[in-house]
Design brief:
Elements (H helix, E strand, L loop, with lengths): L4 H13 L12 H10 L5 H9 L9 E2 L2 H15 L12 E6 L5 E5 L5 E4 L12 E4 L2 H19 L1
Antiparallel strand pairs: 1-2, 2-3, 3-4, 4-5
Helix pairs in contact: 1-5
Protein name: SMI1/KNR4 family protein
Length: 156
């Protein structure tokens, strides 16, 4: 993900106002990212860039998983969707990157790079039935960053 100076500045501002900045929200090491990828599969490039340069984030819902959260959620995702013969939702079609407060997963569609919601309380058998919430990972992240900054400004 290539970022302009103004985009980097916006992300830095959003991360600086995000709650809990002193604990789990930090950039991830190449070593830790590679360990995840060696154990499971490559992380989509834009999400990987964010993890390495900034870390996961929770400006507003949905949140973007930290590597620690992804390491817990990814195996559960595989267990829930890999063996379902009636569904085309699997690690071949989507990659989980975050979550919503209701327990739903936020995923990247591997074929199009669009961001979709995989609901936790509704059985969905096709990626075509998933709700698109952003046209790209970058659109999602910057939309969340702007909302987080706006929310922080309203609180002040």
């Amino acid at each position: 993900m290539e970022l302009t100076k103004s985009e980097i500045k916006l992300l830095r501002k959003a991360y600086s106002v995000m709650a809990d900045t002193h604990s789990k929200y930090h950039s991830e090491s190449e070593k830790d990212i590679s360990e995840f990828e060696n154990k499971f599969e490559p992380i989509p490039s834009e999400y990987r860039y964010l993890l390495k340069e900034f870390g996961g984030c929770h400006f507003v819902d949905p949140w973007i998983f930290t590597l620690e959260e992804l390491s817990c959620e990814y195996p559960a995702f595989i267990a829930n969707y890999t063996d379902d013969e009636e569904s085309n939702i699997s690690n071949n079609t989507v990659f989980p990157i975050g979550g919503l407060g209701d327990g739903s997963l936020v995923c990247i569609l591997k074929e199009t790079d669009k961001i979709v919601v995989l609901p936790h309380d509704v059985y969905v058998t096709s990626v075509d039935d998933l709700e698109i919430i952003a046209e790209s990972f970058k659109e999602l992240v910057f939309g969340l960053a702007e909302q987080g900054i706006e929310l922080d400004n309203q609180i002040k």
